[in-house]
UniProtKB/TrEMBL annotation:
Name of protein: Multidrug export protein MepA
Chain segments annotated as transmembrane: 20-43, 49-73, 94-117, 137-158, 165-189, 195-216, 256-277, 283-302, 314-337, 357-375
Membrane topology: Multi-pass membrane protein
Lineage, broadest ranks: Bacteria, Bacillati, Bacillota, Bacilli, Bacillales
Broad class of the protein's primary localization: membrane
Family: Belongs to the multi antimicrobial extrusion (MATE) (TC 2.A.66.1) family. MepA subfamily.
Source species of the chain: Listeria floridensis FSL S10-1187
UniProt keyword terms in alphabetical order: Antibiotic resistance, Cell membrane, Membrane, Transmembrane, Transmembrane helix, Transport
Pfam families in UniProt: MatE
Cell compartment(s), UniProt: Cell membrane
Length: 445
């Protein structure tokens, strides 16, 4: 792919960034809208308790995603680095090893989780009202979770192999198919929560098929080849991908923590209100993930090719875009909280009011969250694993848990919704101090 390499090395940094950013954002945006539509369908067809049940089961979905990102980003960073070094054979070995690793680990974990699925459901926050919905959704995810991980890792590698547009098309088709199947299974065939889960995994299987067409393209460098699972190769993949794994795992901790905290101060109504907020949050979160996905192949390639100036120009541009996007979403949350909540159904007053309160408080986190995501990806891709891990662990584990324990006894539901915004602010401040000390944004002469 000579033209691809020339574009990355000689083309305008801004144009190259946009070339990767737009497909990534469009794909992620449609996937997030797809998640929201799922919530709208379930909320209108089955009600708030069913919505809460799905929300409780979501961490299982997140764990599978975490595994695919852990190995996918860890492998893809090495893959693009090898492309930058012009070592195609090495890149193909890395790709093959990553695919085998993600499938083996996913299937083994799914078997274990399925055996202990009932205690797992209660551990995630299920109660007598929600357990039946949680089990319906979780059973499907555990049986077909490998489809999710395969789609995720293929999407990452296709993007790193210079075909972000195909990755976008796969996400778009997945989203459209999911919407069609969700409506059909819920409103026509009356399959309930199980139907929503089946729609999701079926749509992802379609995405896998579309992504697989990249193998047959003339300029594809993705080839399955012989490989060996050495300790050093596994260690390197897991090390580089660890922040991505912890980030996705942190989303599970976030969902579990918020479910438990809001249930303690507002009961099932609080969990239902948080479910609405969480669906809205998924939209913005996917956008920020899209920004990280856009810069990862570029930074990895520039590192391999030793193009330091282009690397720094890219991260500066990405950070600026992330902050601007965060400001926009914060304003939307302040002005349109009521409209956002009403999209998901006509809830009882207590659920509606709590959800509106949550949107207005929680959306302030987006002032800092996008910047944190971009910088985490940058540090991870440039092998500053310690800093990338700190960002991930601090924002959704350490500080979030601390504030979920401290704030609710004094401020009730408002304290619960404030935990993430405060955590994001603290982490963003620590990043700026580190970046200033290490001259991260300073361009070389």
């Amino acid at each position: 792919m000579k033209n691809f390499d020339q574009t990355l090395e000689q083309g305008s940094v801004g144009k190259v960034f946009v070339k990767y950013l737009i497909p990534s954002l469009v794909g992620m945006l449609l996937m997030s809208v797809n998640i929201v539509i799922d919530g709208i369908f379930v909320g209108h067809r089955l009600g708030g308790v069913a919505l809460a049940g799905i929300n409780i089961a979501v961490p299982v979905f997140s764990i599978f995603t975490a595994i695919s990102l852990w190995i996918g980003i860890g492998g893809a960073s090495q893959y693009s680095f090898a492309l930058g070094e012009k070592d195609i054979k090495k890149a193909q070995v890395i790709f093959t090893r990553s695919i085998i690793m993600v499938l083996l680990i996913t299937i083994l974990l799914a078997i274990l989780a399925f055996i202990f699925r009932i205690p797992l459901a209660y551990l995630l926050g299920a109660n007598d009202e929600t357990i039946s919905y949680v089990m319906e959704y979780m059973n499907v995810l555990l049986l077909f979770g490998f489809v999710l991980t395969l789609e995720n890792i293929l999407s990452i590698f296709v993007r790193n192999d210079g075909d972000p547009n195909l990755a976008m098309v796969a996400l778009i088709v997945t989203a459209v198919v999911n919407v069609i199947l969700n409506y059909s299974f819920l409103f026509i065939f009356n399959l309930g929560v199980r139907g929503s889960a089946l729609a999701t995994v079926s749509a992802m299987a379609v995405g896998v098929i579309i992504l697989s067409t990249h193998f047959f393209k003339k300029n594809s460098r993705l080839k399955l080849t012989g490989f060996s699972l050495t300790f050093d190769s596994i260690k390197k993949t897991f090390s580089i991908g660890l922040p991505s794994f912890l980030s996705e795992l942190g989303m599970s901790v976030f969902t579990m923590g918020y479910n438990i905290a809001i249930a303690a101060v507002a009961g099932t109504a609080g969990v239902a209100a948080f479910s609405v907020l969480n669906y809205s949050h998924s939209v913005i979160l996917m956008m920020f993930l899209g920004m990280g996905s856009a810069i990862q192949p570029l930074i990895s390639y520039y590192r391999g090719a030793k193009l330091v100036k282009r690397e720094k120009q890219t991260v500066r541009l990405a950070a600026f875009v992330a902050v601007g996007t965060g400001v926009l979403f914060f304003i939307i949350g302040l002005l349109f909280a009521d409209q956002i909540v009403r999209m998901f159904g006509n809830f009882d007053t207590d659920i509606h009011d709590l959800a509106v309160l949550g949107v207005r408080i929680f959306f302030s986190a987006y002032l800092f969250m996008g910047f944190n995501f971009v910088m985490m990806t940058y540090f991870q891709t440039t092998n500053r694993i310690g800093m990338a891990t700190w960002i991930t662990v601090a924002r959704e584990m350490i500080f979030m848990v601390i504030f979920l324990l401290i704030l609710p006894p004094f401020f009730g539901a408002s304290g619960v919704f404030s935990a993430i915004p405060i955590s994001e602010l603290i982490v963003a401040t620590s990043i700026m101090l580190y970046a200033h000390r290490k001259h991260i944004f300073k361009l070389p002469a």
